[in-house]
Amino acid sequence: MNEETEIEKREQAPVIDGEEQTLSTDGEEQARVLTQDVPVFDVQEPEEASTPVELTEQGPFPSNISVSAQEVMPAQGVMQTTEAVPDKNEKKSLRQRIRRVTSQVFYGVDLYLFMFTALQGILYLEYSFAAGLSGGILSPEPSDFFYGVFVVIATIAALCLGSLYFSGKAERGVLFERPNVCQEIFEVKERPGPGKLIAFAGLIFLLQILFSFVTGIFELIFNYFGYTLEYSEAMNAEYNTSWTLFLYAVVLGPLAEEVIYRGFLMHGLKGHGRRFAILVSAFVFGMMHGDFQQTMFTMAIGLILGYVAMRYSLWYALLLHIFNNGILGELWVWAIGKMSDELYIGLLIGLLILCAILTVWLIRKGWKGMKAYLAYDRTMPGAWGSLVNLWFILFLAFSITEIVFSISPM
Fold this sequence. Notes:
Blueprint lengths: L2 H10 L2 E2 L2 E2 L6 H9 L33 H4 L15 H46 L10 H28 L9 H5 L7 H32 L2 E2 L4 H4 L6 H26 L5 H15 L3 H20 L2 H25 L2 H34 L15 H16 L2 E2 L1
Antiparallel strand pairs: 1-2, 3-4
Helix pairs in contact: 4-5, 4-9, 4-14, 5-9, 7-11, 7-12, 7-13, 9-10, 9-11, 9-12, 10-11, 11-12
């Protein structure tokens, strides 16, 4: 190699840290020169990193490390990203939307109750008119069988009307997340298991016994002022006197009430917050019964059924509702009449102890999960204020009127 060629190569060699490095034709020498004194940056392991990770010359970030835009952008000359704060117009628009949704939900509930009540009245008047023309063939008052027929027809018609209304809202994307509202409300989101279902049933039985004492206390208070709750039509009705009434009490009534109150109403309000939807549906379910003795108890079990329907599925809430009406409401009352006082007291104490154990087990096993589930999303601002609308007020006025008339002079 001549002297001119050697000088030319030295001039082309890179300068690192102020020292000239000579490139040789040997591959190993080239690798040594190119890597000599080149700084290498290490990436900390995710669990040991206490400061934001920076981009390095070794390649991309590990897949389990998330880095925000502020962590990789230069500190100066770059606008920092901040969460947008809604202005007054946006807040007003949100409250108007919440109020509109709540109003539409209660319009559908009122539509169901109007059809259910009005159709029963129309059928009763038609029967009375037919009885007057029958020349004594039909009794002036309808039998339990015919009264059951009236209730079954009214329930089916009201449920169909309510379903058409809410299905139309779902198809237009107004109230529900999916266009198929039945698929949404009956979706099985989680399976509680037979143990939890039995524990929920035991809790309902405990509440029924507890509120029987509570209503007894209120009866004494009303007796002091010359009134009684004992003449309540709903509480004194015997649904096992005809198969039509029994069908309504055990199957058709629970189905309609679950679809309307835990289905359409609760899922329609779910966007306002889970807790809000469950509380409002339980309140409406209790007030809808229009009876002082039933209102408090049905509100309490409405909370249980609402939680079960929201977290698991409407199917499980329907199963518990049928258990309450069929087993606790009809079969238990029938069995009491066949027992001696000693057998009844012994069986009642045994069931209370069993249900108390199941309730304690349910609370110990699932209390944290219940709290975490209900705390997952917060109630939207303006949700409670949205109840101040025409259709909810009409529902409230009708229900309170029924409750007042269930209190009779002694």
